[in-house]
Write a structure and sequence with these properties.
With about 120 residues, the protein is mostly helical. The protein has 3 helices and no strands. The protein is elongated and about 90 Å long. Keywords: Membrane, Transmembrane, Transmembrane helix. This is DUF3742 family protein.
Length: about 120
Amino acid sequence: MKNSNKQYMYSVLRQAWQELRAVGNKAGQALLRTPLPRILVLCIGLALLITLIPLILSLFVIFMLVKLFLIVVTSSNRSRQQSDSEFKPRQWSYKEAEDAQLVRVEQITYRREDR
């Protein structure tokens, strides 16, 4: 049983290696046909891409950590301020109540789509 699994893995790996070699040969043939300035441009573009992606990811992580730090600092300051001051309920006043309007609802009709 062990031998058949080894043979299967060997054949899979051998086939994968053959496919990889075939792709490499095709890429090599294509590179031999392309002019050198185009290859130079492709190499520069690939180098920029390889350089910029880690830079972008690291900046994203740094800014998210700064944001998280600021959120923690501001929330701790707010909780400290609330615990320091006594809780005083706000007094109700007639002046605020004068701005309210009385609305009377006599009948509510529903549309069929809302049911």
